[in-house]
Specification:
With 414 residues, the protein is of the alpha/beta class. Strands 1, 2, 3, 4, 5, 6, 7, 10, 11, 12 and 13 form an eleven-stranded mixed β-sheet that branches. A three-stranded antiparallel β-sheet has the order 9-8-18. A two-stranded antiparallel ribbon has the order 14-15. A hairpin with a 4-residue loop joins strand 11 and strand 12. Helix 1 runs parallel beside helix 2 and helix 5 crosses helix 6. The protein binds iron/sulfur cluster (SF4). The site of iron/sulfur cluster has 10 residues, from loops.
Length: 414
């Protein structure tokens, strides 16, 4: 039986990201990939690398349409692109932080150094158990922590680069999420962000017909159709409930709502502070508001990824205790722990983000609940589009609508 946490969205900080003013944008220089992950929503097309001038034009278009602090360079796997170093340099030269979203398979130390020299700001490694990764087939999420650690250490060796991991969460891997968080907590000094993306797919069993314009279409043509009966409706509060079985005080501080449901948690953010020995607690909504609004005030942009030199200043963050209940209780717990062992004073404290992303949800009336102010907007023919559904544009030329079938039983909306 699934359990779910009760979270009051109005008690959290609503991340201020919007269509024209957003922390992140999503660049896809290629849709070629060296893996074929089960939950991937991009068709793997060999040799689909965009020429450099086209990539430059897309970066310029982001600059024109959207205030973005960071650009996620994704795909496909961006390290497949022969001009990846130049792409990173271009993003940096245009004043944005290049974050490489990669499975890491092609990353070597020399390439990492080259990318850093070109301006790479961070890496988000997609590592999960349904990737068919050579050498790691059949390994569980927990066993894959050994691979995650290799990447985190590689980045740490080069230094000054933000290290994030994302993994897709399926019903059979949900129970492993707390273990991953436990692992991340023990490496809070070199792992800065953990992202959990809830598996979604177009399912023929859902009682909808699918229409592109006036034409009924067959969604099985798309890479993100799901022929089996796996769950495609796991919600962020279920993940929080799972995490709380192991970490009862796990408390999100900020969220991004859905376009159709103001109380849905499409991006649910938790910030925790600790040392490699223990997590002292979770920051509150005020802390996140100060970070986002302060960064916007200072730079004109909302903060995408904090640099390691900032996340390692956990103790300085405690100065925000007067403004934020979460930070205050972190400070109290830390002070109490010093009484038990004063040597803890010499341990560095770090900040780590945990993001749960809940992509498209289908509602009873056929509406599709998307992330409001989608941070992962990408370019399609010069326009900003949802990257998670771009295959619909590629195959049908427009977004696909879901229309409930007459008399069919429909799944309950959350
Ligand atoms: S709407 Fe889709 S592309 Fe945009 S943030 Fe949500 S899941 Fe990502």
């Amino acid at each position: 039986m699934t359990s779910t946490a009760t979270i009051n969205h109005r008690a959290l900080y609503r991340l201020p990201w919007t269509l024209p003013d957003n922390a992140i944008s999503w660049l896809e220089p290629t849709s070629a990939c060296n893996l074929s992950c089960d939950g991937c929503y991009r068709e793997n097309v060999t040799g689909s690398h965009k020429p450099l001038p086209e990539v430059r034009e897309e970066i310029a278009a982001f600059r024109r349409l959207r205030n973005s602090d960071g650009i996620s360079i994704a795909g496909g796997d961006p390290l497949m692109h022969p001009d990846i170093v130049e792409i990173v340099r271009t993003v940096r030269e245009m004043g944005m932080k290049p974050i490489l979203n990669t499975n890491g398979g092609r990353l070597s130390l020399p390439l990492l150094r080259e990318l850093k020299k070109a301006g790479a700001y961070g890496f988000t490694f997609h590592v999960d158990s349904k990737q068919g990764r050579p050498g790691w087939k059949g390994k569980s999420e927990v066993e894959l922590n050994a691979l995650r650690l290799e990447y985190a250490r590689m980045l740490d060796e080069v230094g000054g680069i933000t290290c994030s991991f994302n993994s897709t969460v399926y019903e059979d891997t949900l129970a492993e999420v707390p273990e991953l968080l436990d692992w991340a907590g023990k490496h809070i000094d070199i792992v800065h962000v953990m992202v959990f993306i809830l598996y979604r797919a177009a399912v023929p069993q859902i009682p909808f017909d699918w229409y592109a314009g006036a034409k009924k279409v067959d969604m099985s043509a798309l890479v993100y159709s799901e022929p089996g009966d796996r769950r495609v409706d796991i919600k962020a509060p279920e993940v929080v409930a799972e995490i709380r079985k192991r970490f009862p005080d796990f408390t999100p501080c900020a969220y991004l709502n859905g376009t159709e449901q103001p109380d849905s948690f499409k991006w649910l953010l938790t910030g925790r502070v600790g040392t490699t020995e223990r997590v002292y607690g979770y920051v509150g909504p005020r802390y996140m508001e100060i970070m986002q609004a302060g960064h916007h005030l200072g730079t004109g942009r909302y903060l995408a990824y904090a640099p390691p030199k900032l996340t390692s200043k956990g103790r300085t963050m405690l100065l925000l205790s007067p403004f934020d209940d979460g930070v205050r209780s972190i400070a109290k717990r830390w002070a109490g722990s010093l009484l038990a062992n004063p040597l803890r004073l010499f341990r560095k404290m770090h900040f780590q983000s945990v993001m749960i992303i809940q992509p498209v949800d289908f509602l009873e009336n056929g509406a599709q609940n998307m992330c409001d102010g989608c941070p992962d907007m990408t370019m399609w023919n010069g326009e900003l589009v949802w990257s998670c559904r771009m295959e619909e544009l590629k195959h049908f030329g427009c977004w696909v609508r879901t229309v409930p079938r007459d008399g069919a039983a429909v799944p309950a909306a959350s």
